[in-house]
Design brief:
Elements lengths: L1 H22 L6 H5 L8 E2 L1 H6 L2 E3 L3 E4 L5 E4 L1 E4 L5 E4 L9 E5 L2 E5 L10 E5 L2 E5 L8 E5 L2 E5 L9 E5 L2 E5 L10 H4 L6 E5 L4 E6 L8 E9 L7 E4 L3 E7 L3 E10 L2 E5 L13 H4 L11 E3 L1 H10 L5 E5 L29 H7 L17
Parallel strand pairs: 1-4, 15-23, 21-22
Antiparallel strand pairs: 2-3, 3-4, 5-6, 7-8, 9-10, 11-12, 13-14, 15-16, 16-17, 17-22, 18-23, 19-20, 20-21
The structure holds zinc ion.
The site of zinc ion (ZN) has 5 residues, from loops.
Length: 368
């Protein structure tokens, strides 16, 4: 061991004196010189080049004073303004992301430093270059969407990642999904939270022994001042139920006592073309008699997927949940059915209200 160290010290000493001879004492970078790949190499920094007359090629510099040809090292800005980086062994960084002094940079196939901010594609991998010229790493909001980038800056696509105590899924385009129901598949159990303050219901699935930390989806809801706080276990459910008014709700799941998840009210029993449109348009605000009103499709999701005895926690907080609050498209007076009610899709198609996207004419369908 001692001999080994001695040998290293001697070889470093020889190398340093060599470099000092070439570059002059001011420009010795002892840290770089200590790196393994540097023995046998003659290096030059950008600073040295400026101090001396040189003949430059892409990767080497001929020093006019000594006639020695040395390799570049560190940052180099060409006359074109393009920046390059040479590793301590004199090789240029090309075609990859590369960490320099704690910052991650991206270099093109020909070694040019990428400087225009935005999404970048290199070797089929996607990156995001921030305004400061460094690559995004970890969980990041870009525009309206969240993304996840690995330690080497590669954007996650079609995979899960842990962020902020949750497990999120990032889709084909790298965007975080705000509904992972299809990716997860049906689960045997869920956990539901209701934020009375923000009027957001969030459904969670279990991530092994980490608990219910996978946000599955969020629903916009309407709670009421008398909505009780606490943790409950759903005892019953009803396809239709008579509510205060009287009016009638679909896909009702009891939480506790007279408090239930259910659709917005209808004016007739078992008639899903009698929606109280004005009440529907208030979804997302605190306006119920205490129940938790949902879009019909969302009430149905709970009714269909959450077994009885599902745990529900109702709380009141300013904190934003894992997913943003879904929007509510305001209905016109004549739209007397809930556009999320799967049984009423045909009505939206008939009236051409565009709740199900642009309709494809029948004779065009085979082209898709
Ligand atoms: Zn519609």
């Amino acid at each position: 061991m001692k001999n080994e160290i001695k040998r290293i010290i001697i070889s470093i000493g020889m190398m340093l004196s060599g470099i000092i001879f070439i570059l002059g004492v001011n420009n010795v970078d002892t840290n770089a010189a200590l790196e393994k790949g540097d023995r046998q190499q003659e290096l030059v920094t950008e600073k040295t080049m400026k101090a001396e007359k040189t003949v430059e090629t892409a990767n080497t510099i001929k020093m006019a004073s000594t006639g020695k040809v040395v390799k570049r090292k560190g940052w180099y800005t060409a006359k074109s303004g393009r920046k390059y980086y040479y590793k301590s062994d004199g090789t240029p960084v090309k075609n990859r992301s590369y960490r320099i002094n704690g910052n991650l940079y991206l270099f093109s196939k020909s070694g040019i430093l990428c400087t225009n901010p935005g999404f970048k594609t290199l070797n089929g991998k996607k990156y995001y270059l921030k305004k400061n010229g460094t690559l995004a790493v970890g969980y990041l909001k870009i525009g309206d969407d969240y993304y996840y980038f690995s330690k080497t800056g590669v954007m996650y696509r079609d995979r899960w990642a842990y962020a902020r105590g949750y497990k999120f899924y990032f889709g084909k385009d790298g965007k975080r999904l705000t509904d992972v129901d299809e990716v997860l598949g049906k689960r045997s159990s869920y956990y539901i939270t209701v934020n009375k303050n923000t009027n957001i219901v969030t459904v969670y699935a279990q991530d092994g022994n980490k608990g219910y930390t996978i946000p599955v989806k969020s629903f916009v809801c309407s709670t009421g001042d008398s909505t009780p706080l606490g943790t409950f276990y759903t005892p019953y459910r009803y396809r239709w139920l008579t509510l205060v008014g009287p009016c009638w709700g679909q896909w009702c799941t009891q939480i506790y006592g007279n408090y239930l998840f259910h659709s917005v009210c209808y004016n007739s029993w078992n008639d899903n073309n009698s929606l109280d449109v004005a009440e529907y348009n208030k979804l997302g605000t605190t306006c119920s008699h205490g129940c938790i009103r949902l879009k019909a499709g969302d009430a149905k999701w709970i009714y269909d997927n959450c077994a009885l005895n599902t745990k529900v926690t109702i709380f009141s907080s300013n904190e934003k949940g894992p997913f943003p609050k879904p929007t509510v498209e305001q209905l016109t007076e004549g739209h007397t059915w809930d556009p999320t009610d799967p049984d009423m899709k045909y009505k939206c198609k008939q009236s051409g209200c565009n709740h199900y996207g642009k309709l494809v004419p029948c004779d065009m369908q085979h082209l898709y």
